[in-house]
Write a structure and sequence with these properties.
Blueprint: E1 2-5, H1 11-24, E2 27-28, H2 36-43, E3 47-50, E4 55-58, E5 63-65, H3 70-79, H4 85-90, E6 97-100, H5 107-116, E7 121-126, H6 129-141, H7 147-155, E8 157-160, H8 163-168, E9 175-180, H9 195-198, H10 208-217, E10 218-227, H11 232-235, E11 239-241, E12 248-254
Parallel strand pairs: 1-2, 1-3, 6-7, 6-9, 7-8, 9-10
Antiparallel strand pairs: 3-4, 4-5, 10-12, 11-12
Helix pairs in contact: 3-5, 5-7
């Protein structure tokens, strides 16, 4: 994988690209007049493109970049006093802590960070290197027009690691809530903006060993989001919370 810049560039963009090149051990390639297709043909690998507002991953069949998307809508609803499914299920409140074991594009971590506030803590881990880079850097780099989300984004601690290894290294009762949102096995219409993510996502299934560690680390709840037809709710010991208007449901394991 290489890293380059947009056509229209400046010193700030160049500096950011070179900084990321060094941080992630990526080869920096000056963009020049090369199109993305030409970069693919010349280097035969995916490309990270740094622009003035985004850090984008491009491959022959996928384009991925961080954007708050539905997070902006969820954020406004919370400010307006409306409910949010994850917050309601997890009973998150200011000052609490949440470990997001599947960062993805960061929407759930953003909302959790908004709710727990400065006195709380949100830690998010991601096993896929591309997703980790795009989202962890996007949380810092994206020009939010929502100051609440901008502040929330800066508080999220991100790590590139798989869930089991990270959980194994944590003390007992380290987080109030441990959360999983594994990639669905089935397509869901309401998640079609994630179709490009599906092409590079980690489809590793959750197992009993990982959930056992999550139960040790969580003080209050272990929560999993999955397709409503998934058999993992029952097989891993989650109580499925059915939602009539959604094709994805939450599963809950209550600790205390």
């Amino acid at each position: 994988m290489i890293i380059s810049t947009s056509y229209k560039t400046n010193q700030s963009i160049l500096h950011k690209a070179q900084q990321l090149s060094s941080k992630y051990s990526l080869t920096y390639v000056p963009r020049g007049k090369n199109t993305l297709k030409q970069l693919f043909q010349k280097y035969q690998c995916p490309v990270i493109i740094v622009t003035g507002t985004h850090i984008r991953f491009h491959s022959q069949d996928a384009e991925i970049y961080f954007h708050p998307n539905i997070g902006q809508i969820r954020s406004k609803r919370i400010v307006d006093g409306e409910t949010d499914a994850l917050i309601e299920i997890s009973q998150l409140k200011p000052g609490m802590s949440l470990l997001d074991c599947t960062l993805g594009l960061g929407a759930d971590s953003l909302i959790a960070s908004q709710v727990v506030g400065e006195s709380g803590r949100v830690v998010a881990i991601e096993s896929n290197f591309v997703m980790y880079l795009i989202t962890s850097e996007g949380l810092k780099y994206y020009p939010f027009d929502n100051p609440i989300l901008e502040e929330a984004s800066k508080r999220i601690e991100t790590y590139h690691q798989n869930a089991f290894d990270f959980l194994k290294a944590q003390d007992d009762d380290s987080f109030d809530v441990v959360y999983f949102d594994p990639m669905f096995d089935s397509d869901i219409k309401e998640t079609t903006p994630l179709n490009h993510v599906r092409k590079i996502a980690d489809y590793s299934t959750l197992n009993h060993e990982t959930i056992a560690e999550a139960k040790r680390v969580a003080k209050q709840y272990v929560i999993m989001k999955n397709h409503y037809l998934s058999d993992t709710f029952k097989s891993l010991g989650f109580i499925q919370q059915k939602r009539k208007t959604s094709q994805f449901h939450y599963g809950v394991i209550k600790i205390h």
